[in-house]
Amino acid sequence: MRMEQRLYLLVAAACVVSACSGDVSGPAQDSAADAQGDSQLPGTAAASVTPLSKDYGYNPTVAVPADSQGNIVYAAWEGLLQGIPYLFFTRSLDGGMTFEEPRPIFPASPGGSRPVLAAVENRVFLVWAGAVRLGAAGILMSMSEEAGALGPDRGESFLAPVRVSDPMRVAANPSIAATPQAVLVAWLDLDAAETSIRFRAYRKDPELGSMLQPDPIGVLSESGAVTGRPALASDSETAWVAWEDFLRIQEDPKQTEPSEILSVRSTNGGRSFSSPPTNLSETPGNSMRPVMAVSDGVLHVVWEDFSENNASVLIPVRSTDGGETFEAVAIPLFLSGSTTTGHGLAARGQHVYLTWPGRDPGSGTRQIFFTRSVTGGSTFGPPFNLSLNPESAQNPAVAAGPDRVFVVWEGQMEIGPGESQRQIFLGRLQAYH
Question: Range of 280's domain?
């Protein structure tokens, strides 16, 4: 990123930290949003909220097939089945109006599986961290059948999981992207000596029909000081991966700089990646939790930054040349009050959707906020409180269809006197054009 862009980000962050009292945006942003029609998103009237889990749930994920008309929505999360951690799955076949009864599909890791969904054509893919050997977690993947007895399967049933990561290494925090040609998976490798970002692609073989054949595992980061969940996006034969990296200080390799967001790209479907990685952030404070989305040839990246007074802001950038260069989005940035559980990003056509957990200035509780762009990510409308949870909400994820946007999150709900429980909720919004 160019120097003037980095300076803009720091000035904008300082403005937000000093001038904003909550998750709000500046007057210039509001005016631009009104011109775009963002006034059609009036807080509570903007979305219908549906409880998805019937019991305790956390780490939700949501997906809409990129090539669908928006009638199919998939959701998954971690929960408990008779006290045992399990992955739960549900789907809607009517655009999110109703959802099937959630069903447990695979055992989850007691330490947290962090499942992620992707969908393309008539198949849905799920990756998570699960037990691959006694006492050690690795990355597993399952997919729905391509077709059932009555037509496309669409998550009606799932194949037995396959091991994605090296069985002799501990792995966590997977990400997934799917195209009609391939399924791409990235994850955090937790080797005892050095951590790294690893990647694997599964490709269609024309001679084997719907079967996917795995590529060898690739190593994308060799700094030995990476953390968090990598971000992953793919658009046909181009793929991008970004991650949080504590760069080593050359004079003393045992010491590290504040974390930065690094990114690599592949122009051959993940068979090889650019080197060295591009530093997207280059800010004085820690940069954390990147998310990515691509649409209409524009790559969008958002991360959390702690450069000013250790206060947290979300920094969005975009690339219109396939990841060769990045530009700062010229809007006041959002004061998130430390997202702590990450944020969600999705794009469809010229629409870009961003959601995050932040402190509501009225109630003082942590809630899920939402904003959108109808200009390809160059400007964003004013954010609003989507969850309006009586207690608190966190850990959002978002998926975009052609006419609707779907956000899932954890909401803390009272289930008895003095007793509350995390449950999974879904917000359904119109994608105004």
Answer: 3-20+58-351
